[in-house]
Predict the 3D structure of the following.
Amino acid sequence: MSNDLEFKELKLFKKGKVRDVYDLGEHLLMVATDRISCFDFILPTPIPDKGKILTQVSLFWFSFLKDTVENHLVPMSLDNLPVSAEDKDKLKGRFMIAKKCEVIPFECVVRGYLSGSGWKEYKDKQSVCGLDLPAGLEESSKLSEPIFTPATKAEEGHDENISFDYMKNSIGEELANKIRDTSIAIYNKAADYAATKGVIIADTKFEFGMYNGKFILIDEVLTPDSSRFWPKDDYQPGRSQASFDKQFVRDYLDASGWDKVPPVPVLPDTVVSKTQEKYKQVLKILTGEDFA
Ligand SMILES: Nc1ncnc2c1ncn2[C@@H]1O[C@H](COP(=O)(O)OP(=O)(O)OP(=O)(O)O)[C@@H](O)[C@H]1O
Ligand SMILES: [Mg+2]
C-alpha cells in the first residue's frame, strides 16, 4: 500500500502525519493510515496494517477507560457513510467516527519513567518541563509518582515541552488542573492494567477537545505511536529499554547516519516487517485480541 488513501467523495478536514480526518458535517471521520512518523517526519515507507492495529488498540482503551473519561467516539457503522462499496472496504478496521471538537492545543504527556525528552532535560537541569526531580535518577528510572509534562502542539516542526504554568496561563487554571488530574488518573488506570500483562507504560500522550462545553478524550489513546511500552521482564534502569513502539525504526534511522533533514530514508523490508510484528504483538498482549 502507498502512504496515501484517498476518499474523493469526502471533504478533507485535516491531514495529520498519521490520520486523515474528513468532515461529515456534524461528525468527523478519522482514518488511520499506515503512515509512520519518526522525529516528526513522515517516512516514505508505510507499515502495512499499522492504521488498523492503532485503531483496534485505541478502541480497546476508549472502552476500558469509559467510566473514567468521556471520549469522542460516535457509535456509527460504515453503512451510514456516503462512500462507495469500494471505499467502505478501504475504511474497514481503520476508521472512527468522532464528535467534532475544538482541540485543546496541548499534548497532555504523562510520564511514569524517565525517558526520551524527559531524560534529556533531566540530565541537563534535573527537571522535566520545569518540574524539579530528585537527584540520582538514571535513564529509564521509575518516578516516585507519575508527572504531567505538557507540550505544545506545533502546527509545523517539533512539539515543545512547556511548563504547567504556561498551560494554565493559556487555557485557564481550572481547566488545566482538570486535564492534568484526568490525564494522571487515566495513565494510572491503564498502567496498572498493563502491568498485569507484563507491560510497562513508561509514558504516553493524550489529547483532549472541548465538546458542548466539556472536555473529552479525543484522537488516539495509549497506542504504540503515542506511548512508550516496555516489556516488564527486560526492564532495567540505567539504559534505554527494548520497546514495543517505533523505537526500532528510530534506532534504524539513527544507525543509518541520516542527518534528520529530508529526504527521509526508505525503510528496508526487514525493518518494516519487524515493526509490523511489534505493533501486532503489543495489540495481542494488551488487549488479548488477535489482529482482526
Ligand atoms: N474529535 C476530534 N475533533 C477534532 N479534531 C480531532 C479529534 N480527534 C483528533 N483530532 C485531531 O485530528 C488530527 C489527527 O491526526 P494525526 O494524529 O495524524 O495528527 P498529527 O500529525 O499528530 O498532528 P497534530 O500535531 O495536529 O496532532 C490531530 O490534529 C488531532 O488533534
Ligand atoms: Mg497525533
User: Anything to note?
Assistant: The longest helix spans residues 173-196.
